[in-house]
Amino acid sequence: MPSLLVDAGYDTAMFGKWRCGWLPWFSPLKAGFQRFFGNLDGAIDYFEHIGTLGEEDLYEGETPVEAVGYYTDLVADRAVDYVLEPRVNPFYLQINFTAPHWPWEGRGDAAVGTKIRADYEAGVQPFPLLHTDVGSLAKYAELVETMDEAIGRVLAALDGAGKADDTLIVFCSDNGGERWSMNWPFIGEKGDLTEGGIRVPFVMRWPAAVDPHQVSDAPNITMDWTATMLDAAGAGPHPDYPLDGVSLLPWLVDGAPYPEHDLLWRIASQGALRRGKYKYLRDGRDRAIMGNWPRRYWSKNEFLYDVTVDGREAADVARHHPELVAELREAWDRWDAGLVPYLPDHPNLPRPPQKAGPGRPAVSQPD
């Protein structure tokens, strides 16, 4: 999306978490962003600015940098400054806060970050930022509140720059919650394809084009917003870049009927397809929710749920709709056949080596 927006005359920037591959192979600047400040890994210590393997992980463009401050605030500072810059071109700004991701550090917890780094350097923790032995609901709420305050600063900057009405703002999470988050009434969490793993908060604002105070239960997926933003910017659809999502712009702006379409997911041994109110779930794992049910149910790996009334995915209605199950299975298999296969003996993406420590051998990246 950013590269197509640049071609359409937009300025582009990204601040915060990247996690789409490591240097020298990948970076935001290699994907069309003209400016980047943030971390390349999936998590970062809010004060020490190290990644999940203990390496320094703060970059300006593709150059490692040092900065003092709480990471959520640093990202917000860059975003506010960018919004307030005088410019001729329209802009696309992607802000990827890590909050409320672990480690569990609020603004007053710099000493926690220091201890995490010390424990890692001493070999006490093989993966320092997992931070599984501390945390609380109150600390999680603090992280969320700090992020909320940071977003408020960005929105205030848009107001101050006179750009609030004409700016399409999208807020969403990248996956369902884990650990301290409350996913009720959904089952599951981040890392699987039950509703607790894929149903996320979503808010959009565009005063010049969309009336406020509306709520919709129409199912959509992040890839739809790629298509929608490109459409709104006059940069799509592009014949050389077929998209996985569907533009929602006619529905949002012109009152067209909602574009019904399948939503599809795949992760490890799971696959899912949402069509209307039904969700087809393929799950190759033992289903922990089976509990003490008869063992004959354990081997079942295809399920059908009406997730509009059964967010806990407890009522498998597959036997009532065998033709629909067969249709959704075929659709998912056809889609899956076009994806890049998982490589069994290679990491998902290249990453930097992990340094050795007491009781911890170094891990290097294979060629």
Summarize the structure.
The chain is of the alpha+beta class and 367 residues long. Helices cover 25% and strands 14% of the residues.
Descriptive overview:
Strands 4-3-2-1-5 form a 5-stranded mixed β-sheet. A 4-stranded antiparallel β-sheet has the order 8-9-10-11, with helices on one face. Strands 6-7 form a two-stranded antiparallel ribbon. Helices cover 25% and strands 14% of the residues. The longest helix is centred in the middle third of the chain and has 24 residues, at 137-160. It has 8 helices and 11 strands. The protein is globular and about 60 Å long. It has a single domain (2-261), classed as Alkaline Phosphatase, subunit A (3-Layer(aba) Sandwich). It has helices spanning 2-7, 71-84, 110-121, 137-160, 195-198, 222-232, 249-253, 322-337; strands at 11-17, 35-39, 59-60, 63-64, 91-96, 169-172, 202-205, 263-267, 270-275, 278-283, 302-306. Residues 288-297 and 363-367 have low confidence and may be disordered. It is of the alpha+beta class.
Topology at a glance:
Layout: H1 2-7, E1 11-17, E2 35-39, E3 59-60, E4 63-64, H2 71-84, E5 91-96, H3 110-121, H4 137-160, E6 169-172, H5 195-198, E7 202-205, H6 222-232, H7 249-253, E8 263-267, E9 270-275, E10 278-283, E11 302-306, H8 322-337
Parallel strand pairs: 1-2, 1-5
Antiparallel strand pairs: 2-3, 3-4, 6-7, 8-9, 9-10, 10-11
Helix pairs in contact: 2-4
